[in-house]
Amino acid sequence: MELFDILDAAGRVIGVAPRSECHGNPELIHRAVHVLVFDADGRLYLQKRSSRKMIEPGKWDSSVGGHLESGESYETAAKRETTEELGFLPDNLIYLFSFEIRNRIESENINSYCTVFTGSIVPHPEEIDAGRFWSAEEIGDSLGGEIFTPSFEKEYELLSRCDNPVAARHFSCSKR
């Protein structure tokens, strides 16, 4: 059974609950991590969530997304989730920003990281239906078209304002 730390409004751990209780009860704030994987050309890898997922099935999402196990650090979870979902261990994770998702299904406090990877990506077949690298223009043209998860659209907006050098390279032609 997967156990998640439950947080108060200030982000302090106040308890533990199973995954099954956290999804479906937005009162239970828990932690998640995202990793945005760029290639050498500055394109962003996105995964198409499995059609079997409970939340946002079949939509395009961040390169990697997952929950922290109880007591786990964000960075450890980012490395674990990247290995599980995409088949490689990132050796150059860079923290980008934190944000919150609050909806009728769940409440998550998310830390986003990025990495540059030029090797082979092997998507986990039970987690991901498809995956590919997208240019900033392709993503921009598709925003608001309901092909992306709401979480990714929020994260992408934050990424577009981020001063991180990797993010800046991705937005070199469209930075505001």
Keywords:
176 residues; alpha+beta; Nucleoside Triphosphate Pyrophosphohydrolase; 9 strands; 23% helix; disordered C terminus
Could you walk me through the main structural features you see in this protein, from its secondary elements to its overall organization?
This protein is an alpha+beta fold and 176 residues long. The chain has one domain (3-170): Alpha-Beta Complex (Nucleoside Triphosphate Pyrophosphohydrolase), CATH 3.90.79.10. The chain is 23% helix and 34% strand. It contains 5 helices and 9 strands. The strands form 2 sheets. Strands 3, 4, 5, 6, 7, 8 and 9 form a 7-stranded mixed sheet that branches. A two-stranded antiparallel ribbon has the order 1-2. The longest helix has 13 residues, at 74-86. The relative contact order is 0.21. Residues 172-176 have low confidence and may be disordered.
Number of helices: 5
Along the chain, the helix and strand elements come as EEHEEEEHEEEHHH
- Rg, Cα atoms, Å: 16 Å
Euclidean distance between termini CA atoms:
45 Å
Fraction of helical residues: 10-25%
Number of domains: 1
Poorly predicted runs are 172-176
Inertia-based shape: globular
Compute the average pLDDT: 92
Strand content: 25-35%
- The total beta strand count reads 9
**CATH overall fold name:** Nucleoside Triphosphate Pyrophosphohydrolase
| CATH class descriptor | Alpha Beta
The appropriate CATH architecture is Alpha-Beta Complex
Largest sheet: 7 strands, mixed
CATH superfamily: Nucleoside Triphosphate Pyrophosphohydrolase
